[in-house]
Amino acid sequence: MNGLKSLTERQAAVYNFIVEKIQNRGYGPTVREIAEEFGIRSPNGVMCHLKALEKKGAIRRSPHKSRAIELVHDSVQRERGLVLAGRVAAGVLHEAVEQNERIDLGDMFHGPNLFALEVSGDSMIEAQIADGDYVVVREQPTARIGEMVVAETEDGDATLKYWYPEKNRIRLQPANSSMAPIYVQDARIRGVIVGVVRKIG
Amino acid sequence: MNGLKSLTERQAAVYNFIVEKIQNRGYGPTVREIAEEFGIRSPNGVMCHLKALEKKGAIRRSPHKSRAIELVHDSVQRERGLVLAGRVAAGVLHEAVEQNERIDLGDMFHGPNLFALEVSGDSMIEAQIADGDYVVVREQPTARIGEMVVAETEDGDATLKYWYPEKNRIRLQPANSSMAPIYVQDARIRGVIVGVVRKIG
DNA sequence: GGACCTAGTGTACAAATGACTATAGTTATG
DNA sequence: CATAACTATAGTCATTTGTACACTAGGTCC
């Protein structure tokens, strides 16, 4: 998930703590600060992690200096942004393959379970979402009635619609009065739409 | 040049050295590192500067911790984000006072002459811009025919419309078929719209 | 089973580092 | 001229902090 190679869960946690400190406070933690944060009762417990992080190339250290932890990937800098997961059809169904592009929407939209999709088609036009817009999606398996979702139908296609579960079927309602709703027996919710971004010109 | 108040030449030099270290290396200098850099032969020489810098509000320090220098103006790094300059009316004219809020849209929208406005009203609804959306504006005094602009009319109000200069007047065209265009003799362009951002839920 | 990685506890030590006192030269400012 | 502010030297002290050593324990891999 990060560009870092195979950090263990614990190592990643330590790494994130270091990054957080540097970001929030301007200077990194000491060995003992890390120990306290993670309930480790020996400086050496932390030393192991730091050595591992350095060996794996996540950080660089200057020996015998205090707080001398340097982040190798100016990670946070580059780790900003949401995964641009592909194009989602609002009209005809397209494929939504996960790609590796990223789109940086800054503080307004960022989080571990957010991603972005480019919208294709005009079926949500009356919800003020046009062809070429990007929707920000919060990944989650459920939605409330009437929420706008990215849904995956039985044949594996993804689409952007309003979510209306009915008795024996699910109505995927476009926001376009010239288009008819789609009815499916089953569909999986990929996430709900929490934002829209459009670039003009 | 900085927002810092009346640092002496020496103090400014020390401050810049600290900033440079933090930027380049990721962690700040120790008292003795600063001393060496400036040829000061006693730690106390530096302590005086640090105390002065702290008193003048340029830095913040945690006592008895190493390298614990925090920059108060988190200068370049955290200047991300666009100024949220206020609300712009798309229906009735509102005031667009410059506020101090910021909105971070990341790499997609950032630059020295970009700012954001919250949209008020539905007059651009057919351009898929709804009440409560944010528009990203590139500040510039001119626009091409038909571009969407933030225009300031003679009475000082700002509005979001399509820009249609005509022979003896200017037509400010809403994107709402139930609304009539506004005609003005003169209007100043504050900028053109380069993006739209909407937060849902 | 043995080699190896991860993840610790606990203790101890030496170096790194901030903070302090005392002293003093310089430059403005009233 | 006196006072204050800024800058600096010299040396000392106490704390912070990185590092090392010895030892334990749970995994994985061959």
Key terms:
nine-stranded mixed sheet, 4 helices, Arc Repressor Mutant, subunit A, 11 strands, 201 residues, alpha+beta, 21% helix, homodimer, Umud Fragment, subunit A, DNA-binding, two-stranded antiparallel ribbon
Notes on the protein architecture:
2 copies of one chain form a homodimer. Chain A is of the alpha+beta class. Chain A folds into 2 domains: 9-78, Orthogonal Bundle (Arc Repressor Mutant, subunit A), CATH 1.10.10; 80-197, Umud Fragment, subunit A (Ribbon). Chain A is built from 4 helices and 11 strands. The first copy, chain A, has helices spanning 9-25, 31-38, 43-55, 75-79, and strands at 59-61, 69-71, 82-89, 102-103, 114-120, 134-139, 148-153, 158-165, 170-173, 182-184, 187-199. In chain A, the strands form 2 sheets. Chain A has a 9-stranded mixed β-sheet with strand order 4-3-5-6-11-7-8-9-10, with no helix packed on it. The longest helix of chain A is centred in the N-terminal third of the chain and has 17 residues, at 9-25. Chain A is elongated, with a radius of gyration of 22 Å. Chain A starts with 8 loop residues before the first helix and ends with a strand. At the A-B interface, strand 2 and strand 11 of A face strand 2 and strand 11 of B.
